[in-house]
Amino acid sequence: MNEITGYERKDGRFGIRNHVLVLPTVSCVNGVINRISREVSEAVCITHAHGCGRGGPRDLQILFGILSGLVHHPNVGGVVLIGLGCEVSNTKNLLPLLKDARKPVEVFNVQEDGGSLKTAEKGAAAAHRMLAEIRKQKRVPVPWEKLLVSMECGGSDAMSGVTANVAMGSVSDWLVEKGATVIFGENTEMIGTAHVLARRAKNEQVAGEINRMINQAEKLTRDTMGNLASLVISPGNMDGGMSTIAEKSMGCIFKGGTTTINQVVGYGETPTEKGLVLQDGPGYDGDSMAGLAASGSQLMFFSTGRGTPAGFPALPVIKVASNSKIFEAMKDDMDVNAGSLVEGKPLSGLRSEMIDLMIRVINGEETRAEMNGMDVFTFMTVNPPF
Amino acid sequence: MKDNIIMIHPQDNVAVALRDLTEGEKAAAKGIDEFSVMEKIPASHKIALQDISAGEEIVKYGETVAVSTRDIKKGEWVHTHNLESRRWKK
Is A290 helix (H, G, I), strand (E, B) or coil? Predict the structure, then answer.
């Protein structure tokens, strides 16, 4: 059975989880969030290092885009927003972007709500109220076209591009065939493959955007790393058998499968097309995950060879080990062993298992990262703080 | 015989060693005839599936990932000593 279920949202999207998110606008109030999390363990309480001290237009766009993207996220049924008052992304500036969220959003500000302790009390009470309210919501069938699945790789090893990403690519192709949307980013890990990706674009415009995105990533890499730019393919990569940047990047982009690329979206932006979509986001896992999550992706596959336990708040992340050694060594963190391909399991068999697991996870089964609470939340910045 | 190499795409002219391979042993993968390994090849490195002439494209994932700098025999190790990147040259 391929039926999947989730929570219908008023904006037409579907969540596969129904979380109450407790979100700070700025790092100054992280302690308030921590107090609420001790009080309301069922809420997804996240802290971050941003919200002020950066004034450039691109940084502001990212800051507001990521915060509002998480509030809008379909896996989130209600939000308790904790602000300070004097920060750049204060709740007054943020609220206009949240008007169309059409879900319960309660707002508190430490400078107006009686300080940190009283704000934590109010926030915790709001989270309890919201949890009681959203628990009444029932799962309903979800059409596959409403699903946005992201593909991520991090802590890669030489087998990542041979086993895990190849298996994830076959799942990507299956999802696109079902009418779902698949998204992946990590533009630095596309360097050397512009010709391959552009050829797969649905039209000239998308091909142009792919070339522009990858050229920019390459230029930025050269500008910031200078002579070290060639380390984008590192001595360790070479020892692992990867001979060129194109070869390394092919192993990376293979996780998105082989279908037509229908759109390129900016960091944290929501695709408007179905099928395979690229996101112009960075290679660093944490930053990349936030961009993919803010785009509204309800589920993520994440391949790793060296072994990273990282998950993401409110987003089930399925960890795919590229080799049996790390699967055994980090058994509690890994959901899938793509190293089984090396031991003779056919790709078709592994793909079926991954699809079955994905369907169970969509329908509510917890991933290892969810069970273990391995949430990581950080996001991209462009300029230094002032 | 158990597979000891993996061919990622049917158009590829190189495969990936699944373990360290030694000179003289047979290389085996689904969909291709067994052939001899010509030299020591470390795990996760590339082995030539056919003779590749100097200047010919190295195809992995069904795409060109490099160009050979000298003739490579079937069963030989394919790496930075006998290929070059089309871009990102130092």
Answer: helix
- Report the pLDDT averaged over residues A195-207: 96
According to DSSP, the residues that pair with A311 across neighbouring strands are A375
Contacts of B60 in chain A (CB under 8 A): 247, 250
Is residue A365 within 8 Å of residue B24, measured between CB atoms? Answer: no
Percent of chain A with pLDDT over 90: 85
ipTM value of the model? 0.93
Mean pLDDT score across all residues of chain A: 95
- According to the CATH classification, is domain A19-134 in 3.30.2350.10? no
Q: Phi and psi of B37, rounded to 5°?
A: -80, 125
- A197 within 8 A of A259, measured Cβ to Cβ: no
A11: tokens are: 């904006």
> Per residue in A279-308, pLDDT tens?
999 999 999 999 999 999 999 999 999 899
**Residue written as tokens 């039209």?**
A203
Determine contact: B61 vs chain A, CB below 8 A: yes
| pLDDT tens-place string over residues A95-139 | 999 999 999 999 999 999 999 999 999 999 999 999 999 999 999
Residues of A in contact with B90 (CB under 8 A): 230
In A137-291 the beta strands, taken as DSSP E runs, fall at 140-142, 148-153, 181-184, 261-266, 275-280
pLDDT tens digits, A59-87: 999 999 999 999 999 999 999 999 999 99
The conformational region for residue A192 under phi > 0 = left, psi -120 to 50 = alpha, else beta, is left
Give yes or no for B89 touching A (CB within 8 A).
no
**Which amino acid belongs to residue A344?**
G
- Say if the Cβ atoms of A250 and B88 lie within 8 Å: no
| CA gap A261, A264 in Å, rounded | 8
Tally Cβ neighbours within 10 Å of residue A134: 17
Q: What's the pLDDT at B2?
A: 83
Residue A42 in tokens = 């069922």
Question: Which tokens in the block code for residue A199?
Answer: 């050829």
Test A192 with B16 for CB contact under 8 angstroms: no
Query: Is the CB of residue A329 less than 8 Å from the CB of residue A309?
Result: no
Q: For residue B6, give the nearest of A158, A162, A238 by CB distance.
A: A162
Nearest to residue A24, comparing CAs of A5, A46, A7?
Answer: A46
